[in-house]
TrEMBL record:
One of its GO terms (molecular function) is trehalose-phosphatase activity. Its cofactor is a divalent metal cation. The gene is LOC102602255. Belongs to the trehalose phosphatase family. Removes the phosphate from trehalose 6-phosphate to produce free trehalose. Trehalose accumulation in plant may improve abiotic stress tolerance. Its EC number is 3.1.3.12. Keywords: Hydrolase. It catalyses: alpha,alpha-trehalose 6-phosphate + H2O = alpha,alpha-trehalose + phosphate. This is Trehalose 6-phosphate phosphatase. Pathway: Glycan biosynthesis; trehalose biosynthesis. One of its GO terms (biological process) is trehalose biosynthetic process.
């Protein structure tokens, strides 16, 4: 397995960057128009700048701008009529793009018709998808109704949670032993015991119920480095009101949701300066969170491929993978699943 290549082909035209992409409805076209007839290659994805390695975020100005752009509720108020007109034009361009790549929800009937006779595999993000986005990441609890819905779905389809959280933490949130779990953006996977490709070096382990499983952790060699950076980030941000550093095992998350916007640049500069001493780590950003991750050709998309193979569902024409997520790192799954000619086409959706 080549862990040095960082290539990731883009599967679709980039969408215009508009307020709608940040979850803001347009007065011009308040609802997405109906999409064209569903086909196996039809999907919704909202491409953004792919999270890059550390060298891509050396400019603190770019980093602060990225921190703002990845915050869905961040929108500058303006009474400028010219600016409002430009916003409406951008919204229109975005809606036209949506005609080409329609919402999975607006094409639900076509999707269900296409799914007939298919074996469905369901992959779910956690934060913002199964649980609400909350001020305290330690209290991102899913509702009882959502848990019951996921439990019911898992009775019929193999279902996996793929989260940026640590695997143990997301398991504690979900609390369903019948699911499969991948934490740390796919760098910590617990999967069924099955003969898989020699590209993967798995460790035989047991889950919390004592059932035998395969444990795959491609970033295990980075663990001492990640733990060292975690301690440094806790120290660097301790005096920034509202900042929270979260240990997600193979990555570290720096949350700034509760930080005054005037201090965002301080957080960005602190993280950036620290990572200058760790060239094997990269900085990415999500919804009001900065994430320190290993420079490794592994992400949620690779985790989806691994789980499909573990479940014996890869390279099968009758398999329909469905991935539902709401953040930037979920786009890695959207892209990778559609990049192999022999791979089954899937339906993907973005949640806001």
């Amino acid at each position: 397995m080549d862990l040095k290549s960082n290539t990731s082909p883009v599967v679709t035209d980039p969408a215009p960057l508009t307020p709608s992409r940040l979850g803001i409805h347009s007065a011009l076209m308040p609802y997405p128009p109906a999409g064209p007839t569903f086909s196996p290659t039809l999907f919704l994805t909202i491409p953004r700048k792919k999270p890059g390695i550390l060298d891509d975020v050396r400019s603190n100005t770019w980093l602060v701008d990225a921190m703002k752009s990845s915050s869905p509720t961040h929108r500058k108020k303006s009474k400028d009529s010219t600016a409002e007109l430009a916003s409406n034009e951008n919204d229109l361009a975005y809606r036209i793009w949506m005609l080409k790549y329609p919402s999975a929800l607006s094409s639900f009937e076509q999707i269900t018709n296409y799914a007939k006779g298919k074996r469905i595999a369901l992959f779910l993000d956690y934060d913002g998808t199964l649980s609400p986005i909350v001020d305290d990441p330690d209290r991102a609890f899913m509702s009882s109704a959502m848990r019951a819905a996921v439990r019911n779905v898992a009775k019929y389809f193999p279902t996996a949670i793929i989260s940026g959280r640590s695997r143990d933490k997301v398991y504690d949130f979900v609390g369903l032993s019948e699911l499969y779990y991948a934490g740390s953006h796919g760098m910590d996977i617990m999967s069924p015991v099955r003969a898989i490709s020699n590209d993967y070096s798995c460790i035989r382990s047991t889950d919390k119920q004592g059932k035998e499983v395969n444990l795959f952790q491609p970033a295990s060699e980075f663990l001492p480095m990640i733990e060292e950076v975690l301690r440094s980030l806790v120290e660097l941000t301790k005096d920034i009101s509202g900042a929270k550093v979260e240990n997600n095992k193979f990555c570290v998350s720096v949350h700034y949701r509760n930080v005054d916007e005037k201090s965002w640049s301080t957080i960005g500069e602190s993280v950036d300066e620290l990572l200058k001493h760790y060239p094997r780590l990269r900085l990415t950003h999500g919804r009001k969170v900065l994430e320190v991750r290993p420079v490794l050709n592994w992400d949620k998309g690779k985790a989806v491929e691994f789980l499909l193979e573990s479940l014996g569902l890869n390279n099968c024409d009758d398999v329909l993978p469905i991935y539902i997520g709401d953040d930037r790192t979920d786009e890695d799954a959207f892209k990778v699943k559609f990049n192999r000619p022999a791979f089954p086409r899937g339906i993907i959706n973005h949640v806001y």
